[in-house]
Design goal:
Blueprint lengths: L10 H13 L2 H8 L3 H15 L4 E4 L2 E4 L1 H24 L8 E7 L1 H18 L3 E6 L14 E5 L8 E8 L1 E5 L10 H4 L8 E4 L7 H9 L6 E4 L2 H9 L4 E5 L2 H4 L3 E2 L9 E7 L7 H17 L16
Parallel strand pairs: 3-4, 3-5, 8-9, 8-10
Antiparallel strand pairs: 1-2, 5-12, 6-12, 7-10, 7-11
Helix pairs in contact: 1-2, 1-4, 2-3, 5-8, 5-10
């Protein structure tokens, strides 16, 4: 008679290890697992004690996986993917999407890029609620309760699925609402010495356009600072002064571009989400709407481009 070898690890153990490797902290792992922090902590201690292993190095920054934990996490990832695929099979093609999406981006991109997309998405999926987090804090991208992030960056974070939507180009512009600008471009030359220059300040003072303005504006021109890029753009459009604007049609419409200033700086625009959301049908539906909008409003759209080493299958 052949004795049956008892199974030591079960799928729940592997899923917990996978979540902690992915999240890096107990808090992040608990969100991935929809469990409280203390239960994740106890589960890891139980697994380590049962098998006499140390799976993670602990530090103030979080949990750093040792090689054995990384190997076990790969098995947990396969279990997670199988469960996700099974859930997807249960959803029929004609079943309406239901639930909620939480999307983070800058206030400027929410107003001028995402809001034009939302009407189409809501019309197609009326049972999905959408919440925007428009705080200008890049750390928000790492919170696991965020489903999607739209980020202007030339260095997208690793360990995220990414769609590069294209590049944002820039110009210097103002409007005639505050005086000093004519409808003809030639009438606007010299207006940059008569009007304030609007620049990022406060929380966004490190934005590259502030340094560009300081290096290129007339020496006697004054600056007005804004800690919100959306407020800065709105102020330029309302005639408060001159500023660096992204070349989006709904941004520069109604403004006068100053051709004497040539800006070569460009910023990539990335739509990002966590690998655990790869098969989330609401995420995929929103991605499709945003990509369609980008096709029509940006010069370049490259879809399914993975942020290093992760592909969107």
């Amino acid at each position: 008679m052949i004795e049956q070898t008892p199974i030591s690890l079960d799928s729940r153990d592997l899923l917990i290890i996978h979540a902690l490797v992915q999240g890096g902290t107990l808090e992040a792992a608990s969100r991935l697992l929809s469990r409280d922090v203390s239960s994740v902590f106890r589960a890891i201690k139980r697994i380590e004690k049962r098998y006499g292993l140390v799976l993670f190095n602990r530090s103030r920054e979080g949990y750093s996986p040792l090689p054995v934990a990384q190997s076990l996490a790969q098995h947990g990832a396969r279990i997670h993917d199988a469960i996700s695929a099974g859930n997807q099979c249960l959803q029929t093609d004609d079943e309406a999407l239901r639930g909620s999406l939480k999307i983070t981006s800058t206030d400027f991109l929410v107003q001028y890029f995402l809001l034009p997309c939302i009407n189409k998405f809501c019309a197609q999926h009326p049972n999905v609620s959408v919440e925007f987090d428009s705080r200008n804090e890049s750390a928000q991208l790492w919170e696991r309760d965020i489903d999607l992030a739209l980020r202007p960056t030339n260095q997208p974070p690793s360990a995220m699925i990414g769609h590069r939507l294209g590049h944002l180009n820039y110009c210097v512009a103002g409007t005639s609402a505050g005086g000093g600008f004519g409808k003809d471009v030639n009438e606007s030359v010299g207006a940059e010495t008569q009007r304030p220059w609007l620049v990022p300040s406060g929380a966004i003072s490190r934005h590259w356009s502030r340094r560009w303005v300081e290096d290129n504006k007339p020496s006697d021109a004054v600056c007005l600072g804004f800690d919100s890029m959306a407020a800065l753009v709105n102020a330029v459009r309302s005639g408060c002064g001159i500023g660096v604007l992204p070349l989006l049609d709904n941004v520069v419409k109604g403004t006068t571009v100053l051709p004497q200033y040539l800006i070569t700086e460009t910023t990539q625009l990335w739509l990002l989400y966590h690998p655990n959301n790869t098969r989330n049908p609401m995420v995929r539906a929103f991605v499709e709407v945003v990509i369609d909008y980008a096709h029509r409003h940006l010069a370049e759209v490259v879809v399914d481009v993975p942020v290093p080493a992760i592909a969107d299958q």
